[in-house]
Design goal:
Layout (H helix, E strand, L loop, with lengths): L21 E6 L11 E6 L4 E6 L7 H9 L7 E8 L5 H19 L6 E8 L12 H8 L5 H9 L8 E9 L2 E10 L12 E6 L5 H14 L15 E6 L16 H21 L7 E9 L2 H12 L2 H8 L5 H10 L10 E4 L2 E5 L2 E2 L5 H8 L3 E7 L5 E8 L3 H8 L4
Parallel strand pairs: 4-5, 8-9, 10-14
Antiparallel strand pairs: 1-2, 2-4, 3-9, 6-7, 7-8, 10-15, 11-12, 11-14, 12-13
Length: 412
């Protein structure tokens, strides 16, 4: 199933540099799709540290359960990702498929199964035939390499309804050592993370201990992937993993308060934010990228809930799709959020055009100016509640007829 590339896609796919200790290969295993790669196998040098955050869905996939169980070991040797089948809501068969996948991958990587991390994305409720990995992963291990073009191949292999690969890279100094961070993500629908993102994998050659990585990833996810929504639906498979091979040669970072971490944390956050925004830009059927900013709330948590109420509102999102400066729908979304709000203190902007203030339409309101904002590919909706210092920022997209068409045909 293919779809036209999102008009919000970047003009160019970035070239990601090699990362010492990371080798990648992709393959066609015929999991669900025909004639395209659907498996990613990443080999990691011994000693690679790992951190992860996962969906808070009460119906997680078998792969999510597996990764959670392995994470306390803090070391990873390989990652297996397949597209086309989420291996979620598959009961005992799903657990057996994950265990078999880990065994096959471990044999190919030359390690024990508890050093294997697994992620699956695609249709929910259909058993995954893990025997399809037999031979495929061993072949991948023989072909795996660090060269730049493999990163784009990897990002394509994990796509489902995505229309473009999502990649980002950063370089930053840790003391006297320059380190690299590369990341990829997939996701276009069933996007309302409650931890991280649909699937995202980040790699660095920095030497950072797993507990420190975990704190960096947890905080970074909160400021990035947990601030994006396409349709308000949290996936069963959301997985964000961060791997540190330690091959850059820096003195290992073992404490969260190490001052050398500041620049690395900022670079990691920036990369995660870029990936999260790419997910919103590839929202199924999206034609507009939307930033929702809320300020003046009683606290940040309240601002966040109001921002998501706006960003997830079908009425707001269809108004954006129709380029209709319908600020009344924003008022509705604020009012339904269940958070402190006072109608007569509320102010609303589309872009830099204030459309409502003090409980009524702005006296200087210009339909032409507001409509011009709505015709842009990137739209910012800003709300000031006038109650306190709480702020929030989330990203979303519009809701078009194409979203219904894509999801109506998803299993066809």
């Amino acid at each position: 199933m293919s779809h036209p590339v999102s008009p919000l896609a970047p003009a160019h796919t970035p070239d990601l540099p090699p990362i010492a200790g990371v080798r990648l290969a992709t393959a066609q295993a015929g999991i669900r799709y025909k004639g395209r790669t659907d498996v990613l196998f990443v080999l990691l040098d011994p000693g690679t540290q790992v951190a992860g955050v996962f969906t808070r869905s009460k119906c997680p996939s078998a792969a999510v359960d597996w990764c959670r169980e392995q994470l306390p070991a803090r070391e990873a040797r390989a990652v297996v990702v397949n597209s086309g089948n989420a291996n979620a809501f598959t009961g005992l068969k799903g657990r057996q498929a994950v265990a078999l996948t880990a065994e096959i991958a471990a044999a190919a990587a030359g390690c024990t199964p508890d050093r294997i991390y697994i992620a699956s994305t695609g249709v929910i409720g259909e058993p995954l035939d893990a025997t399809k990995f037999e031979g495929v992963l061993a072949d991948c291990a023989g072909r795996a390499g660090p060269d730049a073009e493999r990163w784009a191949e990897a990002a394509r292999a994990i796509m489902t309804t995505d229309t473009f690969p999502k990649l980002a890279t950063r370089r930053v100094r840790l003391g006297d050592t320059e380190v690299t961070i590369n990341g990829m993500a997939k996701g276009a629908g069933m996007i309302a993370p409650d931890m991280a993102t649909m699937l995202s994998f980040v790699f660095t050659d920095a030497a950072i201990d797993a507990p420190v990585l975990q704190g960096l990833l947890r905080d970074g996810a909160e400021r990035s992937f947990n601030c994006v929504t396409v349709d308000g639906d949290t996936s069963t498979s959301d997985t964000l993993l961060l791997f540190a091979t330690g091959r850059a040669g820096n003195a290992p970072l073992t404490a969260a308060d190490d001052p050398r971490l500041a620049d690395f944390a900022a670079a990691l956050d920036d990369l995660l934010i870029e990936l999260a925004q790419l997910v919103a830009r590839d929202g199924e059927g999206a034609r507009k990228f939307v930033t929702v900013r809320v300020e003046g709330a009683t606290d940040d948590a309240s601002a966040r809930r109001i921002a998501f109420s706006i960003a997830n509102s079908p009425l707001v999102k269809t108004a954006v799709a129709g380029e209709d400066a319908n600020w009344g729908r924003v008022v509705m979304a604020v009012g339904k959020a269940g958070e402190p709000a006072e109608r007569d203190r509320l102010a609303i902007w589309f872009g830099d055009v204030r459309v409502a203030v003090e409980g009524a339409r702005d006296p200087a309101y210009s339909e032409a100016a507001a409509s011009a904002v709505m015709r842009e590919q990137e739209v910012t909706i800003r709300v000031d509640l006038g109650l306190g210092a709480g702020t929030a920022r989330v990203w979303t997209c519009d809701l078009t007829k194409a979203y219904v068409e894509i999801n109506g045909d998803y299993r066809s």
